Amino acid sequence: MWKDSETELDFLDYDYLIQTVQSIIMDDTLLPASIGIYGDWGSGKSSLMYMCKERLTNVDEKIKCLLFNGWLFENYEDAKTAILGTILDEISKQESLSQKAKDIIKGLYKSIDKFKLVKGALKYGTDLLTTGGITSLLGITIGQIYKKAQDNIENSELEKIYSNISDELNNKELREDIRKFQEEFATLLEESKISRLVVFVDELDRCRPDTILDTLEAIKLFLFEGKVAFIIGADERHISYAVKSKFKDIEGIQIDIGKEYLEKLIQYPIRIPRLNADEVEIYIACLLLQSELDKENFQKVLSWTVKEKNKDFEKFKMNSVSDLFKDTIAVHTKVVESLSVANQLAFVLSNGLHGNPRQCKRFLNSMDMRLQMASYKNKKLNRKILAKIMMLEYIKPRIFNKIAEMAANNKLSTELSLFENGTPEKAAELKIWREDTWFLNWCKIVPKLSGENLNTYFYFTRTSLDEKISKISSVLSPAGKNILDLLMSKSDVKIKQAIEESKNLSNNEAALIIEAMNSSMLTETNINKEIVKAFLLFARQRTELTNDTISCLQSFSGSQISLGCAGYIADFANETNKQVEVLEIVSKWGKKKPDLQGAIEKLIKN
User: What does the alpha-carbon distance between residue 300 and residue 538 come to, in Å, rounded to a whole number?
Assistant: First the structure.
């Protein structure tokens, strides 16, 4: 299996991104600099920063690189002083520091203590330095902050806080202290013989909005003097949201404050692209070969890969790497098998998981665990069959559950053979998926499964067959969890926000959200109509899940659905052109609720 953490091995062909970062940092005319490494959750931001760190330290041993994880300090220390202190702690570890450098460090520590006192003056929640930074950028007035605070704080205390804020925002001594801090820090870098300081800020998008803003404001202190670079790895949408949420109630803001703030702070944004099918195939092949081969043989693979990519990266394929081991039958067989599985998975995972490296790695880890579990039960699973079944589990969990049920009842083989042989119109149990393009293509993938006994495979996937909303939510990305929460909120505004944000979701996460909402609704005696509305609005935006949604509707009883849901159900049927299928479901509901059946039938277009 593979550790779900950052790595210094480049399986993702990020070298061109590493060189871009390196060129900025090694150019004295561009320093001090702030670099944003932007990417989705699991896209490889942390790994890219680790690779950059290794490259820079190899280029120049006098470069001081340090990693700052803001999430680790959350709840323990003020984020602003934490990052300042971490930087000084690292520099103080330098060997042969001059006495002058040591004295400067002592003075800078005292400055940090003073900043802590300023922070303490605003203990009721209006953050001085963050607010000060925002005001200097966007012109928000002290009066607006005062107005916002009136709603939450008693008048007697409010006057004291207002006085403190006013004094500190206009405090000449504080401004001088900040300037002095910047000048002395630049001098410290010269005295400590550090050629340039590079601070990698990671996990920032996992922090609370106030922690994010504190950290970013601390970074601003270093962007005026000296050979300093900050590399911030984050999902820019989360950072932008943190800024907007902090100042959402301040009147007079007509601009996208989150976007404006980021554009002013980050000078060089670098975005990690999503992997395409070819890149996913290479990535999966490298992971599988890393697991199958010893270090010496795997190093041969890596060296060959770099050499061949440099010839023409656009035409590069992994296929011929097996030629390296044609004289060693056992190794050659392992390589060919790994390449075959990578090819089998690539297109499905690049589309279904948006080519997300972390999700791909988790898929492979889950597959590997199941192969191991089977071996502990003295069973040997075919990796290609397991991989094909797991594609269905990840991308189409609704069909996966149905097929598992049919396999257990010995009904699957005949039905599945109809799809595999190109005659799905004869299917009965799986008829709602007869026109599902994804499923039809899946059935064509080698190996065919209709002649296989799949019960053993489903035995080792039992946990996923009984997933509830909390379990499903735990495997969603932060963005996916947020969308699920918004959809379950029963708020029109939040549901609308969820629909808008869901446009960037992978097919896998969209399917998981459908399953999570369905699991929640099935437990209700009377399903809330706002949840039904959110469920169907979301499903209408995800056309690849139309048939899965119909399957979910089939699982409800008429007694669970209120008359107020009739319009939402009819709209779904009309928008997706699934009137026949929905009317069939509604006729069953009508046995217990004829008024519901009648209302929906009137609204559905013939």
Answer: 48
What's the rounded Cα separation, in Å, for the pair 410 and 407?
5
Cα separation, 445 vs 349, in Å, equals: 14
- How many helices and strands (H and E) does the chain possess? 30, 5
Residues in the chain predicted with pLDDT less than 50, given as ranges, are 120-146, 148-149, 153, 158, 161-162, 165-166, 168-170, 251-254
Query: Could you tell me the two tokens for 584?
Result: 């069939």
In this predicted structure, what is the pLDDT of residue 466? 55
Q: What is the pTM of this model?
A: 0.73
Q: Tell me the per-residue pLDDT of 373-388, one tens digit each, with 9 for 90 and over.
A: 999 999 999 999 999 9
Q: What is the DSSP string of 198-263?
A: EEEEESGGGS-HHHHHHHHHHHHTTSSSSSEEEEEEE-HHHHHHHHHHHTTT-TT--S-HHHHHHH
DSSP per-residue string spanning 409-442:
TT-HHHHHHHHHTT-GGG-STTGGGTT-HHHHHH
Q: List, edge to edge, every strand of the sheet that includes 228-234.
A: 63-69, 196-202, 228-234, 33-38, 268-271
C-beta neighbour count of 191 within 10 angstroms = 20
pLDDT tens profile 387-423: 999 999 888 888 998 999 999 889 999 999 999 998 9
C-alpha torsion 348→352→356→362, nearest 10: -80
CA dist 569 → 344, 493, 561, 583 (Å): 37, 20, 10, 10
> Who contacts 119 (Cβ-Cβ below 8 Å, separation ≥6)?
78, 80, 81, 127, 128, 129
Residue 106's identity, in one-letter code, is K
Calculate Rg over the CA atoms of the chain. Answer: 29
Instruction: Look up residue 409 and give its two tokens.
Output: 């009842």
Alpha-carbon distance of 141 to 252, in angstroms, equals: 10
pLDDT score at 473 = 61
Q: Which of 478, 560, 471 is nearest to 522 (CA)?
A: 560
